[in-house]
Amino acid sequence: MTTPAKKRIKPSAVVIGAGVAGAAATLELLNAGIGVTVVERDSCVGGQAPRFGCKATDACQHCNVCVAQEQVRKAFGPDSGARVLTDTQVTQCQPSADGGGVELLVTSGRGRQTRLRAAAVLAAVGYEPFDARILGPYGYGLIPNVVSGLDIERAHADGRAALTRPSDGQPARRIAFVQCVGSRSEQAHRTPEKTNYCSTVCCSYALRMGRLAQHLNPEAAVTVFYMDVQCFGRDFAEVYAACRKEMDFVMARPYGLQARPDGTVAVRYEEQAGGQAKEAEFDLVVLSVGIRPPAGGAALAEVLGIPLDEYGFLGAKSVLCPEPGESPRIFIAGACDAPRNIAQTIGHARAVAAGMIRLCEK
Ligand SMILES: Cc1cc2nc3c(=O)[nH]c(=O)nc-3n(C[C@H](O)[C@H](O)[C@H](O)COP(=O)(O)OP(=O)(O)OC[C@H]3O[C@@H](n4cnc5c(N)ncnc54)[C@H](O)[C@@H]3O)c2cc1C
Ligand code: SF4
Ligand code: SF4
Question: ipTM more than 0.95?
Answer without folding.
Answer: yes
